[in-house]
Amino acid sequence: MFKIPEHQVAGHQAKDGVLGPLIDDSGNFYKPLQNDERGSKEIAFYTSLSSDPRVPDNIRRYFPIFRGTKAINASDGSGLQPHLVLEDVVSSYQSPFVMDIKIGSRTWDPQASESYIEKCLKKDRESSSLTLGFRISGLKLVTSSKDASVWQPGRKFLQNLAANDAKLVLSRFVSSNVSSNDNIHPDRSFASKVFGGPSGILEQLLELKKWFEVQTIFHFYSCSVLMVYERESLMKGSSSSGALVKLVDFAHVADAKGAIDHNFLGGLCSLIKFISDVLEAPVENGFCNNYCSKDEH
Amino acid sequence: MFKIPEHQVAGHQAKDGVLGPLIDDSGNFYKPLQNDERGSKEIAFYTSLSSDPRVPDNIRRYFPIFRGTKAINASDGSGLQPHLVLEDVVSSYQSPFVMDIKIGSRTWDPQASESYIEKCLKKDRESSSLTLGFRISGLKLVTSSKDASVWQPGRKFLQNLAANDAKLVLSRFVSSNVSSNDNIHPDRSFASKVFGGPSGILEQLLELKKWFEVQTIFHFYSCSVLMVYERESLMKGSSSSGALVKLVDFAHVADAKGAIDHNFLGGLCSLIKFISDVLEAPVENGFCNNYCSKDEH
């Protein structure tokens, strides 16, 4: 009945034999409830989100639906354990391309413990969080549907991208010729269908940005933007990409105490700028002039 | 010929007998050139700003005009010392109200030395920088033009404001009844003339915000927004406030390396939200309902 999610790209993964999320055939995503403060914080967040009238409906749809908690057999064989029951946001996709981007140059709540702050600060400094305002936490791109080969760069590489490499990875995400071969320049064939258009990822991020400019309810530390689209249909010529943005991971959400979430907003604006650049880069002038790493010139 | 600037509200001050800025009668502001890296960084910034064609003209006016460097007798009696020669941005004001707000939740460049980072991080955590995305570095409000009494809150108080207190200070800044007496509710008489309107402070900050959403030239660590207006003319019923926004202090500007300045932008957006709230707060419902510290209820 419970399966290991095939399209999870970040976080603890059940396939490695550890405690990780599971899914079922009814579109549910079971996330193990961390038994420290993080678990209770995530439940508190989802509960507050569901009931807070200040969260507008157009914003609510950027969060996975919360269906309560349930004890199920955990993926690590430890028996019945409590899980959050969430909407499996990719359940309706045939062949989703998924990218998980942790937003904000600071992943720690000022109220956290000294040891936790120290750990996070070190990671923020060693990754692109500090420089770009975000870091890519996970990504899995199927490079060939025939043999199901994938391009899944290592965490170290992904998490510490320089600006040019971030543009390269975002470009590969929306290219028909995805490849880990640095000599193959991403064609960005699907940029306008995935990033662009009235229901594309850029418009969704801009809608979120508008809310973050005014909302003084939550501060989202260590929260991710998940970007998803339907790959195969685009490869077959469809014009509909199913481009989707969701916010995920709320174990470190804090009370905003009257100020906007300037840390999340800054990182979100930085991501928006990168995606706009990839979308608007003139193809006719040769992609590599502006958007490849230096070593590709 | 050289005088101590009367309206300087933050930074080292010559009036305390230390090395500090001086002004002359021709509208020049002489800032001692720090003889470590900071001095050369600030010159490099002004030079680059003057010559970089990517900086649009409408943005250039938010920076003080740079007139080179000059050796003058330093304020601490140490003889001829090199100074930056800048535009004295308040020289044309009769009775300026000035507020200096250091923008960004992080005041340190990731490339700085470990000891410098540690010092700044401590200060950011002990101030409102981390929570609000900015801290008020200085403020001097004349409460009575008759006896020239001023309200100049202590640094400790100013730099670690909670959200409600930040609104209170911003409200006092634009009130006719400025007072340090907590029982006197700021009337915000001048909010619409200073913060509002097509040439008010909010519009200027929004113009800067637009630029920060796209500029990938500079990262402005530890840089301040200076807000100025002409006080006496408003008190006498004039409709023109001379509301002015300037960016100052560029000793820690770094190369953007391809990403927007998400740290500055986030803090700027937070300040914009506070100023919008003070501007839009309904006076008829009683200011104190929403915008006073808890202890004033």
UniProtKB/TrEMBL annotation, chains A, B:
Q: What is the lineage of its organism?
A: Eukaryota, Viridiplantae, Streptophyta, Embryophyta, Tracheophyta
What is this protein's record name?
A: Inositol polyphosphate multikinase
Q: PANTHER family, from UniProt?
A: INOSITOL POLYPHOSPHATE KINASE, INOSITOL POLYPHOSPHATE MULTIKINASE
The text of the family note is: Belongs to the inositol phosphokinase (IPK) family.
Q: Which Gene3D superfamilies did the record assign?
A: Inositol polyphosphate kinase (3.30.470.160)
Check the record and name the InterPro entries matching this protein.
IPK, IPK_sf
GO CC terms, sorted: cytoplasm; nucleus
Q: Give the EC number.
A: 2.7.1.140, 2.7.1.151
Enzyme class, spelled out = transferase
In its keyword annotation, does this UniProt entry include Kinase?
A: yes
Give a short account of what the protein does.
Answer: Inositol phosphate kinase with a broad substrate specificity.
Q: What keywords were assigned to this record?
A: ATP-binding, Kinase, Nucleotide-binding, Transferase
* Catalytic activity as recorded in UniProt: 1D-myo-inositol 1,3,4,6-tetrakisphosphate + ATP = 1D-myo-inositol 1,3,4,5,6-pentakisphosphate + ADP + H(+); 1D-myo-inositol 1,4,5-trisphosphate + 2 ATP = 1D-myo-inositol 1,3,4,5,6-pentakisphosphate + 2 ADP + 2 H(+)
Q: Which organism is it from?
A: Arachis duranensis (Wild peanut)
GO: which molecular function terms? ATP binding; inositol tetrakisphosphate kinase activity; inositol-1,4,5-trisphosphate 3-kinase activity
Which GO terms are recorded in the biological process aspect for this UniProt protein? Answer: inositol phosphate biosynthetic process
